[in-house]
Amino acid sequence: MCYQNNNKTHDLKKNWKKIFYPVAIAASLTSSFTWADTTIRMLHLEADPKVVAIWQQVANDYEKANPGQHVKLEYLENEAFKQKLPTLLQSDQRPDIFYSWGGGNFQTRVDAGLLKDVTKEMKDIKPRFSEASFNAFNYKGKQYGLPYMVSQVGFWYNKSLFQKAGVDADKIVTWDDFLGAIKKLQKAGITAITTAGGDKWPVQFYWALLTMRQAGQQGIQDAIDKKGDGFAGEDFIKAGEELKRLVALKPFQPGYLAASFGDSSGNFGDGKAAMQLMGDWNYLFQAQQSISGEGVGDNNLGWMNFPALKDGKGKATDTLGGIAGWVLTSEASPESVQWLKYFSNIDMQKHLAKINMIIPVVKGADVAIENPFKKRIAQNIANSTWHQLFYDQAFGANVGSVVNDISVGIVSNSLTPEEAAEQVQEAWEFE
């Protein structure tokens, strides 16, 4: 992807040190290092040029303070990143640092010897982070990277379309309330939900959240621990049945099974659907993917948590999302370790939070959040009694791909809830 410069990005880069990144702080972080000439390769999937411009300016500052060190930011699109990374990590073209989620995939890579143990090197900056976020990249007592941001999945909705259909978001508390709102939207001639069956993972959010609401934290943990019927148990079948109730209402846009995440977000941004179940990152992405480039504006945009199941064991405050960050590959240089420590500072976290790019993990950086949606989501995560990592990350690549597949299988009516649950359990038994 080729990034296009614009005046805002240019000004941001021009004024970075003066406004966001005090020279004194930059100097204090780098003045004592005299590494040999080396290139540090950092692989990411960030598509927003504003964020990349900020990262690049931090890299430029670091390079100036550390002559001979060169930071190279390398981009792969989200799906390409997931598909190519396993092969890349086994090759001589592996990066020094790469973007990562916690959970099963991360742990599998540790077990395979692909990641670098940096427990000693990161000990001095551990107090900088919230404990939960720092520990997301700790496995069997050893640290392999640093967190960058947290996220939550919920429903973004269009207030004007809700109003047109006579739907009050504040009264959607239970799943039955939600299904009732779907019917009202359809009666008003409005497409209720846009989703992305082509990419699969957006559809997986429905099955994941319904299983969380039905089984609860203990039920999910029991399945992970292979107790009882595991993922083939009654709660997981019940969650699939509830998803079938939604599908029976035909709530999705035409062609949803082939749609990409970009297609789906563009539909929402263009006002072609009332809701989209997606993470907090979609606040900006839906605007970027819209025809106007403006998307659903703040005055017309709403956010609500996933509804509760009437007889479910899960809590309405339980959240699904991610803790994303950076890990180092096994042969990463000492220079790469030092760069990642420098990169993970409060000044950049505050700035990215201020411009609505991340919900930060560095302590104290959350005070910079101004956007009301991001504030609310940050508070949701802070108040959550259980923050479950995305299933396709938490359960590892093999099981995660099955979860994605069976979710699409349920909504396309090619799998029954029982068959779907059994397939997940079978995949888990082979882990």
From TrEMBL:
Q: Where in the cell is it found?
A: Periplasm
Where does it mainly reside?
periplasm
Source taxon at top rank: Bacteria
One Pfam family per UniProt: SBP_bac_1
Query: Which Gene Ontology cellular-component terms appear in the entry?
Result: periplasmic space
User: What protein family is recorded?
Assistant: Belongs to the bacterial solute-binding protein 1 family.
- The name under which this protein is listed is Carbohydrate ABC transporter substrate-binding protein, CUT1 family
Q: Which organism is it from?
A: Marinomonas polaris DSM 16579
